[in-house]
Specification:
This protein is mostly beta strands. Helices cover 10% and strands 47% of the residues.
């Protein structure tokens, strides 16, 4: 089991699949709010298997033990919610 996250990349207008394994879910749960804009550092990247692919992006992001999430309060980019 895992928490699935969709990242919007404003620079290239694409969606990237991300996930947090259930063992790390409680550590990150309070940092994740629907519709929030966050900065994520120290994460893993791997190529998507066609069997589990939920976006058109060829890679996915996975949270690993050193991953850090910080909510962006000021200077956040404008995201078109219709996209």
């Amino acid at each position: 089991m895992r928490i699935t996250i969709l990242f919007l990349d404003e620079n290239v207008n694409s969606v990237i699949h991300g996930f947090i394994l259930v063992g790390r879910a409680n550590h990150y749960r309070l940092s994740l709010k629907a519709g929030s804009i966050v900065k994520v550092v120290r994460f893993g990247v791997a190529r998507c298997s066609s069997m589990y692919k939920i976006t058109d992006h060829p890679f996915f992001i996975r949270f690993i033990s050193p991953t850090i999430i910080d909510e962006v309060i000021t200077g956040a980019p404008e995201i078109n919610l219709q996209s």
